[in-house]
Amino acid sequence: MPKPQHGISLLESLIALLVLSIGLLGVVGLQTQSLVHNRAAYFETQATNMAQDMLDRVRANPDQVAAYELNVGSTVLGSGLPANDQSEWVNDLASALPSGEGGIAINNRRVNVTVRWADASAPEKVRQIQLVSEL
């Protein structure tokens, strides 16, 4: 009469451990991708908020709209409120976004604010948003 088996064999234990390990690696991969995409979404939210901030600054000073013109990546020149607003904005972009820079195009009463930054998931890529507003 054969002896009844007690417990599980070593081979069954190793296979169960292998399946569990593969599952855990998959969960870690998903978590890593989630963190990367959350960071990219955070930067996009920051860029949108900063572009909206500059539109609000331009709207608050309608008499000097033309003085807010700024090419993307260029240095702020001039003095007065528009130059002060631009300097603060450019510094905020540089500190809050990776390689953050911005520009403002004015065409009559139409303001186009552009914000660019390096993509967190692929640093060789550049992300950009544009907000347009009529004054």
UniProtKB/TrEMBL annotation:
PROSITE patterns for this protein: PROKAR_NTER_METHYL
Origin superkingdom: Bacteria
Q: Which InterPro entries match?
A: N_methyl_site, Pilus_4_PilV
Record protein name field: Type IV pilus modification protein PilV
Question: Lineage of this protein's species?
Answer: Bacteria, Pseudomonadati, Pseudomonadota, Gammaproteobacteria, Oceanospirillales
Gene that this sequence comes from? pilV
